[in-house]
Amino acid sequence: MNELLQELNEPVAVAQGVRLLLWRDDLAHPDLPGNKARKLKYNLQAARAQGHDTLLTFGGAYSNHLAAVATAGRLLGFRTFGLVRGDAPTAGTALNPTLTQAAADGMDLHYLDRSTYRRRAEPDFLAEVQARFGPAYVLPEGGTNALALHGCAELASEIRAQVAFDTLALAVGTGGTLAGLLTGLRGPEQALGVAALKNGSFLRAEVDELTQQAAGQAFANYSLQTDYHFGGYAKYSAELLAFIKQFRLRHGVLLDPIYTSKMMFGVLDLIRQGHFARGSTVVAIHTGGQQAWAGWQQRFGRLGG
Asked: Which catalytic residues are annotated (predicted)?
């Protein structure tokens, strides 16, 4: 079996007759793993083809996307600008671990108040930004666009080359990775998205719009689960933290606290409920995000266990 594919011998899956595996996309690259790298792949090629040597993007202070763009810039020789939502740190205040690493990777950080940040997709605002920082290849917040979907679609074929599956399960933030994955599925294959944020019902419309843009159609072969957010984006509970620790003890895998832990908790609960047919094969996708642990520990303390 491929080193990125791991059997999960969970008692609940065995009891329900479901074969459960984990795709370790978090191990796909030593410096730039996971779905953020997949979203960047064809965007970086386009940036080069268009003659750009600078990348500019947006994100929150703990953004996996900002971290990934900064790393890509270091690895591939792009200058990078990160426009960060929120106030700049006051004098004498250290950056959080995510921004510290982004700066170490060469990213030039600038801060936007929340009202200005909401304009990040407006053409006039983007023109202002380009005038200020110079010509740059602009990546949207989270990295989701049509080219990003092409990179995510390849994940389905990579997994299919290793194992026949019925369902691919993944965490959902903006819906870009799920949308890309849908364009790569074939025949009866299904996708299951577990929303990491509260009030995620809007995500279906987002996913459908993205697939219409990328593939010319909306897809019906997926479900979106919105009951496993644990209070909302970056929220947690003692139950979730206990689950992360126990999962690591059982399988030697550290899930991230924002996305993949909620996804894995949801998948196991759905298996317990009989959501998947007996005899089916479910592959849960570890999309990375471990860089979030440094900031998490700074705010909430060590996970322990």
From this structure: 63 (nucleophile)
